[in-house]
């Protein structure tokens, strides 16, 4: 895998790097995030109620990537380690969306950086954090902890917005990982990528993508053999609650 071969190189910025791992939809298109079903009729909502600390943010951005945060959506999420892509990773890449995304995915799967998540005990910290509030703050439908990034599919709930969930996972696991490894410094890239699921075909494609990532990266021959993944850990999952249209 060439793990650590480029660990000393500065990481890529959130603006492009956090888009790295996007599965295609059933029609073969990735595209940009569009209007969510919950907002099609009522228009875009902005901001949050200061009296409700976990109120949904709807469409929002921290200056990097746009995020869609609507309760009840199925969300495909990717977040990655701070050094998972070198700063020059995007130089010379094709500007076409699908081809560019495929190139970035290949760079991530090549194992850049320290790949802290390659250590089983470190990957287990992340997996256990994802599982901890499953069924309470969200419904965890699929996940895969790769050596330098994480994919997951969740259904959000009214009481917890997506950005707060990501902050909780990252903050807890960063402290736990640094403590376990006896290190200091950033663990995760600041931003994250999220994409809401549009239909059943898109849902199936995303689950297949998440489970198949270790095989695609050449880490295992069988998706169920990857230790920190729902492909083998939880073959049976609860039925997804139907999204409101």
Write the layout of secondary structure elements.
Blueprint: H1 14-17, E1 58-61, E2 66-69, E3 74-80, H2 97-109, H3 120-132, E4 138-145, E5 149-156, H4 162-181, E6 193-196, H5 200-216, H6 230-233
Antiparallel strand pairs: 1-2, 3-5, 3-6, 4-5
Word description of this protein:
- The chain is globular.
- Residues 1-53, 56-67 and 235-245 have low confidence and may be disordered.
- It is α+β, with helices and mostly antiparallel strands.
- It has a single domain (14-26, 52-233), classed as Alpha-Beta Plaits (2-Layer Sandwich).
- The strands form 2 sheets. It has a 4-stranded antiparallel beta sheet with strand order 4-5-3-6. Strands 1-2 form a two-stranded antiparallel ribbon.
- The chain has helices at residues 14-17, 97-109, 120-132, 162-181, 200-216, 230-233; strands spanning 58-61, 66-69, 74-80, 138-145, 149-156, 193-196.
CATH class: Alpha Beta
CATH superfamily: Transposase IS200-like
- How many whole angstroms does the radius of gyration measure? 17 Å
Termini separation (Å)?
Answer: 43 Å
Question: What is the structure about, briefly put?
Answer:
The chain is an alpha+beta fold.
Characteristic key phrases:
single chain; about 240 residues; alpha+beta; Alpha-Beta Plaits; four-stranded antiparallel beta sheet; two-stranded antiparallel sheet; disordered N terminus; disordered C terminus
């Amino acid at each position: 895998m060439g793990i650590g071969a480029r660990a000393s190189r500065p990481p890529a910025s959130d603006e492009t790097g956090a888009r790295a791992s996007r599965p295609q939809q059933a029609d073969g298109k990735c595209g940009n995030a569009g209007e969510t079903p919950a907002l099609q009729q009522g228009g875009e909502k902005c901001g949050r109620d200061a009296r409700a600390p976990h109120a949904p943010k709807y469409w929002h951005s921290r200056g990097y990537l746009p995020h869609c945060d609507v309760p009840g959506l199925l969300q495909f999420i990717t977040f990655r380690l701070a050094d998972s892509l070198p700063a020059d990773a995007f130089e010379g890449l094709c500007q076409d969306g699908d081809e560019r995304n495929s190139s970035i995915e290949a760079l991530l799967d090549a194992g850049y950086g320290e790949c802290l998540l390659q250590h089983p005990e470190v990957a287990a910290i992340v997996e256990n954090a994802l599982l901890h509030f499953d069924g309470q703050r969200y419904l965890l439908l699929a996940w895969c902890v790769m050596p330098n990034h994480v994919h997951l599919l969740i259904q959000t709930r009214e009481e917890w917005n997506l950005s707060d969930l990501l902050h909780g996972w990252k903050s807890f696991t960063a402290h736990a990982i640094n403590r376990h490894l006896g290190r200091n410094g950033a663990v995760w890239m600041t931003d994250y990528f999220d994409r809401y699921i549009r239909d059943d075909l898109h849902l199936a494609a995303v689950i297949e993508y998440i489970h198949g990532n270790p095989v695609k990266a050449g880490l295992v021959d069988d998706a169920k053999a990857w230790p920190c993944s729902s492909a083998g850990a939880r073959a049976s999952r609860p039925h997804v609650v139907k999204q409101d249209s």
